[in-house]
Amino acid sequence: MDTSWRLHQHSDWSFGQLARWINPIVRGWMQYYGAFYRSALYPLLQRINGYLVRWIRKKYKRLRTFSKAHEAWGRVTAQYPLWFAHWKWTTGHWR
Q1: Is 57 helix (H, G, I), strand (E, B) or coil?
Q2: DSSP element (H, E) containing 66
Q3: C-alpha span between 41 and 47 (Å, rounded)
Q4: Can you tell me the distance from the alpha carbon of 2 to that of 26, in angstroms, rounded to the nearest whole number?
Q5: What is the rounded CA–CA span in Å between residue 66 and residue 53?
Q6: What pTM was computed for the model?
């Protein structure tokens, strides 16, 4: 069984499609593990953010460089802070 998400290979998807796929899983982790050891979740949630930036770089050719992708990341998280369930915990920590 392959447990890898391979987000960067879903560059034909929209942010909304990714959110619908990821959010139920991540929300469950946040509810369960967050109740006992919330600080242990931060590295995992940050890693998901890293993979989302990688997805952005694959989807949009103009954002291939890290600096441009990082700027776009800042705009997206500021405009749509509740798009992904884990952003309410991580967006202030990651930037």
Answers
A1: helix
A2: helix 66-79
A3: 10
A4: 18
A5: 9
A6: 0.83
Residue 60's alpha-carbon distances to 14, 65, 72, in angstroms, are 11, 10, 10
Report CA dihedral (4, 9, 14, 20) to the nearest 10 degrees: -10
State the amino acid at position 17 in one-letter form.
Q
pLDDT band at 2 (very low <50, low <70, confident <90, very high): very low
For 46-87, write each residue's pLDDT tens digit.
999 999 999 999 999 999 999 999 999 999 999 988 899 998
For tokens 């998400």, the residue is 5
- CB distance 49 to 92 below 8 Å: no
Give the model confidence (pLDDT) of 3-48 as tens digits. Answer: 578 877 788 898 889 999 999 999 999 999 888 888 888 899 999 9
Residue length of the chain: 95
